[in-house]
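Chains adopt folds. We examine one example:
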Amino acid sequence: MNTVLDDNKVLTLVNGDRIALPPQVRMVFEVENLDVASPATVSRAGMVYLSEKDMGWHPYVNSWIKYGSKAIGLFKADERRRLQDGIDIKVKERPRATQDVLEGLCHKYIQNLLDFKRNCHEEVPVNETAAVRSLCTLFDSVATRSNGCDPEHKSYRKMLSMWFLYCSCWSIGAAVDEKGRDLFDRHLREIADPPYPSTAGSTVFEFFVNPSKKDWALWKMKVNKLWRPEPKTTFSNIYVPTLDTVRYQFLVNNMLREKSYPLLVGNTGTGKTCCAVNCLGAGSELEEEKCIVMTLNFSAATSSNATQQALETRMEKRQRSSLGPVGNRERLVVFIDDLNMPRKDEFGSQSPIELLKQWVDNKFWYDRAKQTKKNILGMQILAAMGPPGGARSTVSRRFQSKMHVINLTFPDWATVNYIFKTMLWSHFLMFGEEILQMAQSITQASSELFQDM
């Protein structure tokens, strides 16, 4: 590499051959840091440092207000083709009235909430630009006519404001811990318009926008209180619907529908895997005949080669160098559990994650035998991981910025009691009414005993 960067521009191969590069060749590097760069390499390159504050989130938001997140993605995907072929793709702008409303909402809330978020602890830190991009993408997925955002209705401005507040909670505030949610709740209530209801014991994270009533509603109202597990369901497969499961399922399903990349983060026991499995199984909103699902469990020994081989087993050849989901399906949704478990190499990278990042950025990887490009079509990632620590590593910030991070917190004791009471009550159905009535007291007593130990 150093000889390439010299004035003579000579590439020296492993076998000793030398290739002189023409004067027109220039090299541009974009890296997160210089931890593994030698002084000799650094001295041959001109350094330009870009911080989060240099550009910030404003250029992205300005484009989003005008065109929407899907149009921004279209610009990126077709940029090379437009430059080569001289084709200019015209993208429809949002109505001027909608742009004005969104511009006011962004000006009022985004920087205010980003500044306050610095007072909260995040299990997995999320940079400002990534949080704002998640906000914009999530807003476009929920602010639809079916969810009450009808431009011809008099409540249009109010509904946009409410959905914007909802998305702010689950993007800018999505990664904060339990204590951070309480702080975020108090701050957002002071500036929110329309205001949140003052319901005892409820934070802003427990509200959603009711399209029919055009007002705030609690997620617990959506919980099916009559739910009972199917007969002969094994204990490990019982998934009791609660406030947490309902709101996380709504979020993940919306992201999957819009082809975003959700990343569920949380400590052991918060239900990350159960949430993901449910959203791809019984609670899925994906069309089964058009979608195929697979699961990958990462470990310390997982390699990029094994990851690529596993993914390609669910793909078939489409056109020349293109691969797509088997059975001519439109989408392959891959659930990756324990995303941050692969061991880091001597340069500090995790090869399976670098492979995934290459695909997320460029939508291709290479054939390892032929060294040719393989375009990967119709793949989507849903991932889960625990906070860094022990065997779990810190994921590359460059890859993490492509994901929508959601921190799953531990359920409160009222929710835990409800889960075990529901399971115990369904078991007691085979006994008489006298035994059935004991389910509540047994659950309560067990919970209090556990907390006192």
Q: What stands out?
A: The longest strand covers residues 291-297.
